[in-house]
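Bug #77: duplicate submission created two jobs. Keeping one. Sequence:
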Amino acid sequence: MSIRDGAYRPGEWLRQVDLEERFSATRFDVRAALAQLAQRQTVEHVPNRGYRVATPDRQRRRDMLAVRALLEAEAAVQALPALGDAALRLLDSKADAFDRAVEEGSTSAQSATNLDFHDTLYGFAPNRFLVELAIETRDRARLWPMVLWPSLRALRRSAEGHRNILAALRARDPEAVAARVREHILGSAANDPAVEAGEAADVAVVR
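Kept job's structure:
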């Protein structure tokens, strides 16, 4: 969160002793956290020098996001045969929880309820390796441990995406399910900040 909030800038070196003191953490915990962030490419490890905040590679992020969309769409399609009325009601409740978090919840609640909706859906897929790979790719495709949206409009768009996915699931239409999941992931400003920038530009043109 400190990196995401701008406390550390791209290219800034991270001294482990400073991190230990700032976060009251052990050396082992700091090293483990840095290794995890390096895997996500939030920071980069420079041999014999240490860690520094990474400069985002937009094209790599988009490539990873495209792979993520493919995997999650397939997981949702595979889950479809197992979704009876009770399962759909459960997913409705998960979507409701995210809706409430959008309007009155904290950032952490918004992130948690969003992930809960998706993880609950994919949990019905029989191919467990596919689900594990989809979640692993999702975590690697995000620069930050927590899902963050740049605006209330972006949050509401994600909430609408959940409802579109649910409508396709209720229609028992595999192609629509895959399409709605891909649209939801690729069209979210939480996954690609350029989406929000593009929407803002469109509004400016209209005005």
